[in-house]
């Protein structure tokens, strides 16, 4: 597994294509992909949005992430960092942030390579290409 994270609009998807040779048509989007599709995808972008969808469906995103790591260990996961800034007043948003953070920790622990992208520049936190 490989994990790419960073702020919104930092060229994370382009970095995945450049570093790992992934093609744009191999990437599914967590905003609208089917849940089952994620278990065979080469790359999932906007994983934080998939976490939100799972919550809306009443599923546990942390359990889902653990299953995904077991069943699709070759996947590249791309996820925005969302935990910075002011703590939201709404409980659902706080729980969402917690679920995204916990999911990111699971993915990072299971990944051979973890990359943080800032302004299109890849910083390797774990492993290498």
How would you characterize this protein structure?
The chain is built from four helices and six strands. The longest helix has 20 residues, at 91-110. Helix 2 crosses helix 4 (91-110) and helix 3 runs parallel beside helix 4 (91-110). It starts with a strand and ends with a strand. The chain has helices at residues 12-20, 47-56, 61-71, 91-110, and strands at residues 2-6, 27-29, 43-45, 76-80, 113-118, 121-126.
In terms of topology, how is this protein built?
Layout lengths: L1 E5 L5 H9 L6 E3 L13 E3 L1 H10 L4 H11 L4 E5 L10 H20 L2 E6 L2 E6 L3
Parallel strand pairs: 1-4, 1-5, 2-3, 3-4
Antiparallel strand pairs: 5-6
Helix pairs in contact: 2-4, 3-4
In short:
The model has no long low-confidence stretch (mean pLDDT 96). It is built from four helices and six strands; from the N terminus they run βαββααβαββ.
Fraction of residues in H or I helices: 25-40%
Q: What summary fits the major beta sheet?
A: 6 strands, mixed
User: How far is it from the N-terminal to the C-terminal residue, by CA?
Assistant: 12 Å
Unreliable runs, pLDDT <50, ≥5 residues?
Answer: none
Strand content: 15-25%
Average pLDDT works out at 96
Tell me the overall shape: globular
Rg, please? 14 Å
Q: Count of DSSP helices?
A: 4
Number of strands: 6
């Amino acid at each position: 597994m490989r994990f790419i994270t960073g702020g919104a609009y930092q060229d994370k998807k382009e970095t995945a294509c450049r570093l790992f040779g992934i093609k744009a048509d191999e990437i599914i989007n967590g905003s609208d992909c089917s849940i089952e599709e994620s278990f065979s995808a080469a790359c999932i972008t906007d994983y934080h949005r998939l976490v939100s969808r799972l919550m809306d469906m009443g599923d546990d995103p942390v359990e889902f992430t653990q299953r995904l790591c077991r069943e699709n260990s070759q996947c590249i996961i791309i996820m925005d960092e969302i935990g910075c800034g002011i703590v939201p007043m709404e409980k659902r948003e706080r729980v969402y942030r917690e679920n995204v953070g916990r999911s990111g920790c699971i993915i990072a622990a299971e990944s051979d390579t973890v990359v943080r992208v800032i302004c299109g520049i890849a910083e390797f936190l774990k492993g290498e290409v």
